[in-house]
Design goal:
By secondary structure, this protein is of the alpha+beta class. Helices cover about 25% and strands about 35% of the residues. A six-stranded mixed beta sheet has the order 1-2-3-4-6-5. It is globular. The protein starts with 9 loop residues before the first helix and ends with a strand.
Length: about 140
């Protein structure tokens, strides 16, 4: 009989993760590279003097930079800090010959900002959170 139980055990997590990797590695040649799953983090911070007023945190997954968090203090918005963080992330993408960047954002957050930075919507989940939408946006980078 199958039972399902929750656990935050690192050992159990690693066991399932390794099985997942083994299953997928033969499905696509790129998936043989461990970096397809585990990449470097990118953490950028914007300072006003010594005070952190914003930041961008992300990581590489499947040769794309996933932007996990991008935040600029409300009192500092409108000063191109967010755009500067995105520009630095784009430099990182180019230097590392990544395919591009992607991000999730809610309709009450920053979709127009990302579009202004050259991202395009490629997906939407309705009612996530309830009565809102979560947008998936991407920006492919041409590496010259």
């Amino acid at each position: 009989m199958i039972t399902i139980k929750p656990s935050n055990s690192l050992g159990k997590y690693q066991k399932v993760w390794k099985a997942f990797l083994l299953f997928n590695k033969d499905k696509n040649p790129y998936l043989n590279k461990i970096s397809a799953y585990k990449g470097r983090n990118l953490n950028l911070y914007a300072y006003d003097g010594k005070e952190i007023v914003g930041g961008l945190m992300g990581y590489i997954k499947f040769n794309w930079l996933y932007i996990d968090v991008l935040h600029v203090d409300e009192r500092m918005r409108g000063q191109d800090i967010g755009s500067s963080l995105i520009a630095e992330a784009e430099k990182f993408v180019k230097e590392n010959k990544l395919t591009g960047m992607y991000v999730n954002t809610f309709d009450f957050q920053a979709k127009p900002f990302y579009e202004k930075c050259g991202f395009e919507a490629c997906g939407c989940i309705e009612n996530m959170p309830p009565e809102s939408k979560m947008w998936i946006l991407k920006k492919e980078i041409i590496n010259v």
